[in-house]
Specification:
The structure holds 2 protein chains of 2 kinds.
Chain A: E1 5-16, E2 19-30, E3 34-38, H1 45-52, E4 60-65, E5 68-69, E6 81-84, H2 96-106, H3 111-124, H4 140-152, E7 158-162, H5 170-185, E8 189-194, H6 197-203, E9 206-211, E10 214-219, H7 221-227, E11 232-240, H8 242-250, E12 255-261, E13 264-269, H9 272-286, E14 288-296, H10 300-308
Parallel strand pairs in A: 3-8, 3-9, 6-7, 7-8
Antiparallel strand pairs in A: 1-2, 1-4, 4-5, 9-10, 11-13, 11-14, 12-13
Chain B: H1 3-17, H2 19-44, E1 48-54, H3 59-71, E2 85-90, H4 93-101, E3 107-111, H5 115-120, E4 128-131, H6 136-167, H7 173-181, H8 200-217, H9 219-230, H10 232-237, H11 243-273, H12 280-303, H13 308-326, H14 337-343, H15 347-361, H16 369-395
Parallel strand pairs in B: 1-2, 1-3
Antiparallel strand pairs in B: 3-4
The chains are: A alpha/beta, B mainly alpha.
């Protein structure tokens, strides 16, 4: 348990009819910490943060922010949370200012305080000049930034970002990631969901790997990578009989794990360079053609593969 | 500002910016109300232009024609409008044919030469009616006018024959002339009950406002479904705002728009077209009660939908069924008896009946208590279930 954790989630569970979307999820976020929920689509990330934000009722479990419970009603503790949903959750027929005024007032901001905060967040996301334009007239990247501005407006202690870079061009994506890094650096606690391993590695102090509604592992990048040892990962793209190639690779000395993914085989091994000739031989004997090889340092993708047997983007 | 009012204000702002909402709430009901009121209302207020040809030039025919021409300016007791049949004397039968063919008159009644002499001698004679084939009603009106003359002649003729048989000789021409100048002992007169005079524009203005009002108030539930899909509802619920406040705010916002639309139709048809809606106070009460009732039904109907598209379909289907059953497309007093009974199962049927009473009979608040209570029952009954379902859907 983290001393003086800002967010505590204990035993969060949510079912949709017979399907259990989130099953007994526990995690905590310290003040000033950026925590990533990393998992593929459908892993339960959005359901989890919907319960954390008090949008969705939990079938079991509790959420507390700074010691106050979050519920689906008019919970005052919700003022401590800023939510940036995955979709552009803004009214397209209103201007950025009108959107900020509406959501700001719902957070009990008003008068000069609201005006000051609007000016600050518009400056942070670089939309001051376009503040009086309707959201429907914004580019995709500008909409994303406006979406973030609303989440920051009331100076929350915890900012929840649900896959904020999905469908964003590389330039805007980098801008968004830099903004989040700056916010984390300024002491804001951040809960960040993503299925992009590199974003989690870049932004998050700690990562919870979620799959099938469970957090299957949690820790810093270093702690998570240590779970699979200091092994290299050989990502081999193959044509032909990939299954036979995967089986043949398992027999190579020094190979720890082999996972077959779509059009490729991932081999976790001690010393990738040393076993590479044997891998080529295995491909030849099994009737597969190697179309590409990449040696990767141990990363969260490898951890996820190790823990679930699936790639993050499966 | 309370969260309910904040949500309502934002909803109203968004609706006002939406062309679809402006058309639905203001333009469409006003346009259709005026079109229906003028076209169908015109059909209920038929007017005829009849020509009269006096080819006989007898004293009898002259007095008859003069009587018809004098009737042009006559207004029956209790009637608000002039005589719907206007007479014009035409010199010859040929001229009358031309005027009928050219649609300058709707029909013509011809008193043939020798008519007076024939009636004096109690010989059979015939009045001629000229009309176009597509104007049967005008011809019937002309025939009815001729029938009035014929029955007067018959009455005098019968009297003369009776006196002749009793005295053994015919009465003198002076006595016969005196008999012709007497009024008929039995006459029929049309008198509308009370002061009931339904303004077609007021009726169809209210009827069309109600049809589109149902669409307008369905914006609330449809907006919630759209916002759930777009994520803005989730963002609102992530603030300290209860689901009930969001629902109440949405309903309040669209009801304000619906009331504004209804009031616009009322004022526009009254000021621009002279529609007589009746005393303003009961009209305002009825507008509010109607908006509440249709808002309740609409919220319930849309609460059954899971997507905005489903809600659109449900709202459209229920709107037209209610409009048909409630009599919104059928003019005042034209609905068959069964439909009038069925209309009492619909909120718009009750509302239309009350609007008609206020318009036609200058009914005050006392006369519309029952319809208003029924409308409020629709509002509370359907609205409560609908709101509960919508709120439960949000919280789940």
């Amino acid at each position: 348990m983290i001393d003086a954790a800002l967010l505590q989630c204990v035993g969060l569970t949510r079912r949709f009819q017979e399907r259990v979307a989130v099953d007994g999820v526990n995690f905590e976020i310290a003040r000033g910490e950026t925590y990533g929920l990393l998992g593929p689509n459908g892993a339960g990330k959005t359901t989890t943060i919907s319960m954390v934000a008090g949008i969705l009722r939990a079938d079991a479990g509790t959420v507390t922010v700074d010691g106050e419970h979050i519920t689906t009603g008019a919970s005052p503790a919700k003022r401590r949370i800023g939510l940036v949903p995955q979709d552009i959750a803004l009214y397209p027929d209103l201007t950025a200012i009108e959107n900020l005024q509406f959501f700001g007032r719902l957070q009990s901001l008003d008068g000069p305080q609201l005006g000051e905060r609007m000016a600050v967040v518009l400056d942070v996301v670089g939309l001051t000049d376009r503040a009086h334009d309707r959201i429907e007239d914004y580019s995709g990247g500008m909409k994303r930034r406006a979406n973030i501005a609303v989440g920051l407006l009331h100076e929350p202690q915890l900012l929840i970002l649900d896959e904020p870079t999905v469908g964003v061009d590389p330039q805007s994506r980098n801008q968004i990631l830099e903004s989040i890094e700056a916010l984390g650096g300024a002491g804001l606690s951040v809960l960040y969901t993503t299925h992009y391993m590199e974003e989690a590695e870049r932004l998050c102090d700690r990562v919870g790997i979620i799959d099938g509604g469970h957090i299957v592992a949690e820790g810093t990048r270093r702690e998570l990578v240590a779970r699979i040892g200091e092994h290299d990962r050989l990502h081999v793209e193959v044509a032909g009989d990939g299954e036979a190639f995967a089986s043949a690779s398992r027999a190579i000395g020094g190979v720890v794990e082999v996972h077959r993914t779509d059009g490729a085989v991932d081999i976790v091994a001690d010393g990738a360079a040393r076993i590479l000739p044997a891998v080529v031989d295995a491909a030849e004997t099994s009737g597969a053609q190697i179309t590409g090889v990449e040696v990767r340092e141990p990363d969260l993708e490898a951890v996820f593969l190790h823990l679930t047997g699936r790639a993050l983007r499966d | 500002m309370s969260r309910v009012l904040l949500v309502a204000r934002t909803e109203l702002l968004r609706r006002v910016r939406s062309r679809a909402a402006i058309v639905t709430a203001f333009l469409a009901p006003l346009a259709l109300g005026v079109v229906f009121g003028v076209l169908i209302g015109g059909a209920n207020n038929l007017r005829f232009r009849l020509g009269v040809v006096d080819a006989d030039r007898s004293e009898l025919s002259r007095s008859f024609v003069d009587g018809l021409l004098q009737a042009n300016g006559h207004r029956p007791p209790g009637a608000k409008s002039d005589n719907p049949v206007r007479f014009r004397e035409v010199a010859t039968v040929g001229a009358a044919r031309h005027q009928v063919d050219d649609a300058k008159i709707d029909a013509a009644l011809v008193i043939p030469a020798g008519f007076g002499a024939a009636t004096q001698a109690s010989r059979p004679t015939t009045l001629l009616v000229l009309r176009r084939p597509e104007q049967p009603v005008s011809g019937q009106v002309a025939q009815a006018v001729g029938g009035g003359l014929a029955s007067g002649v018959e009455r005098v003729d019968l009297s003369v024959q009776t006196v002749s048989s009793l005295q053994g000789r015919a009465p003198s021409p002076e006595v016969i002339a005196a008999a012709r100048s007497l009024d008929a002992p039995l006459a029929t007169s049309e008198l509308a009950m009370g002061a009931r005079q339904v303004s077609p524009l007021a009726f169809y203005g209210a009827a069309m406002a109600m049809v589109f009002l149902f669409f307008t108030v369905s914006f609330a539930a449809r907006s919630l479904l759209a916002e759930r899909h777009d994520g803005t509802l989730g963002r609102i619920l992530a603030t300290p705002t209860p689901a009930g406040a969001v629902v109440a705010g949405k309903v309040l916002g669209v009801c304000a728009l619906a009331v504004a639309g209804f009031v616009t139709v009322w004022i526009a048809t009254s000021v621009l077209f002279g529609a007589a809606w009746g005393d303003p106070l009961p009209v305002v009460v009825l507008i509010l009660a109607t908006v509440a009732a249709l808002g309740g039904v609409s919220t319930f109907v849309c609460s059954l939908a899971r997507t905005e598209q489903q809600a659109d379909s449900y709202a459209s289907a229920v709107t037209f069924v209610l409009a048909l059953l409630g009599g919104n497309f059928i003019g005042p007093g034209n609905a068959p008896d069964l439909l009038r009974r069925v209309a009492l199962f619909t909120p718009n049927g009750w509302a239309l009946r009350a609007f008609t009473d206020v318009s036609a009979d200058a009914a005050g608040l006392g006369r519309i208590v029952v319809p208003v209570l029924v409308l409020l029952a629709f509002a509370v009954g359907f609205g409560a279930i609908g709101l509960w379902r919508v709120r439960r859907g949000i919280e789940q």
